[in-house]
Amino acid sequence: MGRRFAALLAMLFLNFAITTANAQEGAALRMDPMLVERVVRPGETFTYYIYLTNEDRFEPVTLDVNVADIVEELSGHYRLVPLGSTSYSLERAVRVEPQRLTIPGGATRTVEVTVQVPRGLMGGRYGAVVFTIGGERPTDEEEAYASMDYVFRMASFLELVVEDALLRREAYAASLDLRRSAEFPALRARVGENAMVFSMEVENKGNVHVVTRGEIVIRTADGRTVARYPLGGGRGIILPNATVALRSVITRKFPPGDYQARAIVQYGGSRPVTADLMFSVDAGEVLAEGVSQEDLARLWVDPGSLELKLRAGAFGAAVMEVSNRGDEPVELVGSVIPLAFDLYGDPLPLEERGQAPPWIELRPDTFRLEPGQSRRVRISVRPPRDATGGYYADVLFRPAGQGPVQTEAGGSLLLFVGEEMERLGVAEIVEWQHQDGYLSAAVMFRNDGTVHAPAQVEVLLSRRWPEVVEEDGRVIPARVEPVGSLALPPSDYPVLPGTVRLFPFLVPVELEPGEYQLAVRVDYGGDAPSVDQVSFHVEKPVEVAATTQP
Asked: What digits encode the pLDDT tens for the residues 130-144?
C-alpha cells in the first residue's frame, strides 16, 4: 500500500505551482523524501530529515518551511490547506526546524522534522511539510496560503497510521452514472463523442485512508458477462471524509439490448463497495439515467463476517446489526443466498447462485431504518444430521424500490459443521505459451476438501541443461538453473470446497533456445502444498514453444 502511495504522489508538487511577475526565477531544487510513512503508537516521538539540494550552482535560493494539512478533491488530486483545517490534521503533532533557510548554489541542506504523536490519537493523520520559494514570509498563516508572492511550493508528504487503535475502514457508493464522452471535453478529444463513461463516486467515512481497486462488469439482461473494465481515478487513495470519482471509459460498441453494469470497488473492508446500473443500447446510442449523491442509501453491516461452529443437527444463532448512515429513511429487504465465485474468483451474480439451504433463516427480513438508526437482525441455523464441512452464505440487505441504480450491503456467514475439517487441494498447470517475448500460463487449483482454502501461488521458471559428454570423456551432469520466480497476488476471496479457481499470469521474458521447466506451488492450508511442473522446448527466442495441456 505504501509503495503505491509513494509512486502516485511523486509529482504532486507540480499541482501547487503558482507564478508572479516579481517572483524569484530559475530555482532548481531536488527534495528527498517525497513521502514518509510511519505506523506509530500514541505518545511516540520520532525525528526524520528532509534533504534539499539546490541544483543551480550559481544562485542561492531561500525557502520558507511550514506544515500544512491536505484535502482530497473529487478528481483525486490533493490540495494544501492551513494546518488544523481537517479532522485528520497534523496539528500539534509536527514541528520543523529551521522555518527558513538559504541554500547556496550547488549545496544541500537539511530540515529536521519532529513528530510527537498525541496520546489518544486514533486512525490516520495526513499532511505535508511545505517549502515555499522566494518572497517575504507573511506573518499570518491564512494570509500565507492566499498570497501570490511565491513562484511555487514543494511538498514532502507525511502519513501516520496509529497502531493498536481502532482503524475503521468504511466506504460507500455515493453515486454511479453513465454518460457519453461528448460531455467531457478532455475525453472527447481523445476517444470521440460516443464512448461510454462510467463514473462511481466512493465516499470514505472511516478514520484512515483506503486504497481502492475497482472494476466494471457488464452483463446482458439474462446475466451473461460480456466485458470487464478497470475502474479507477485520481491516485487510488481516498483520504478520510473525502469522496473521489472513479472512472472507466469504454470505446467498445455493444449490440442493441438491455445491460447491467456492476461497479465493484475493493478498499480493504470486509466487503467491496458495489452498485448496479441498468442501461440500454439502441442503434448505437446509450440510454441511461444519472443518479445524484442523495439518491443512494449508505448502509453499514456489523460484523462483516460471522463464523459459527456446530454439531450436525444442533441449533445455533448469531446477530448482525444494520445501520443507516445516510440522510434519508430507507425500507430494507434482507435475504440469504449461497456464497459463490466464478472461475477467476469474482462473486457470481445473485441470480446465478441459487437458493440458500432452507435451514438458514433471517429474522426480520424486511424493516425500515431512519437516518442514524440501527436494527439487529437474527440469523438462525439448524444443519441436518448428515451435514458436514463448511457452508457459506451471503446475508444481503437491499433498499426496496430502488431506481436505475441499486446498492447493497451485507455480511458473510461461515458455518462449520462437525469436528474435523478436511483440507485437500490439487494444483495443475493447464496451459503455457512462450511468444513475442512473453511467457503466459495458467494454474488451476481444485479444492477437494470440505472447507475453504486461501490459495497462495508461487511460480518458478528454470532452464534445464542435459548431460554432456566431452570428447575427452569428461561427463558434465544434467542440471537445472533457475531463470526467475514470482508470487501471484492473493485472491480477494478463498476457493470454496468443491470448486476450482484459475490463476493466469503473464511474464515478460526472452528465452534462448533450449529446454525449460515451469513449476508451480500452491499453499492452501493443507498438510503439504500442492506442486505441479511441466517441461517445454524453445526453438527460437520469440516463437511459440509449447501450447498443450498436461
From this structure: 999 865 444 455 554
DSSP state of 346: P
Amino acid at 235: R
How is residue 349 annotated by DSSP? P
Q: In terms of domains, do 432 and 308 share one?
A: no
Inter-residue contact 336 to 394 (CB < 8 Å): yes
Name every residue whose Cβ is closer than 8 Å to that of residue 187 and which is 6 or more positions away in sequence. 181, 195, 197, 249
Whole-structure pTM over 0.70, yes or no?
A: yes
Same domain, 439 and 464: yes
Cα dihedral sign, 309-313-315-320: positive
CA 168 vs. chain centroid, Å, equals 16
Q: What is the pLDDT of residue 138?
A: 47
pLDDT at 116 over 80: yes
As beta bridge partners, residue 369 has 330
| Strand partners for 322 | 301, 375
pLDDT in tens, 295-347: 688 999 999 899 999 999 999 999 999 999 988 899 999 999 999 999 988 88
Domain boundary among 295, 315, 338: 295
CA angle 7, 13, 16 (to 5 degrees): 145
Residue 545 belongs to a domain: no
pLDDT greater than 70 at residue 165: no
Domain boundary among 275, 295, 315: 295
Q: Tell me which H or E stretch contains 278.
A: strand 273-282
